[in-house]
Amino acid sequence: MTIGASESIVDGLKSTIAQMLSNTSYGVRPTAIYANPVLLYLIDREMKSEFNVVLNTKPIEGGLTVKTLSTQAGDIPLILEWTLPERLHKLEQRVESHEQGVQRLKGLGGAFGALLTLVHLAIAWLGARH
Fold first, then answer.
1. Are 70 and 56 in contact (CB under 8 A)?
2. Is 73:17 a contact under the CB 8 Å cutoff?
3. Burial 45-84, CB ≥16 within 10 A → b, else e
4. DSSP conformational letter for 80
5. What is the structure's pLDDT at 84?
6. Residue 18 has pLDDT above 70, yes or no
């Protein structure tokens, strides 16, 4: 996404999010806008000077409170990118751990189904012999 020097940053972000939501090729749900501190400052300044709006705040993971931008997708958190690496790594680890647990359960379910099928086959075979 590129926004010209004389264009509204907020309008550009909101327009991009609206276009993402209207795309019927895939379901999209924007969850946050990650940006450097200068861009977040410019968004905040533009909202105050152009629209006389003070951005709302919202608590997020890790006990941080961030400002939000109201869009067609709801209030989207504005998150500083320099806070992400460690938190994203921890989140990725949690997601990976959860995924491993789900895969184990799927494997156990498949093994139980195979065992149950073998028991039914053995019962049917033994019943046919007598």
1. yes
2. yes
3. eebeeeeeeebeeeeeeeeeebbbbebebeebbbbeeeee
4. E
5. 58
6. yes
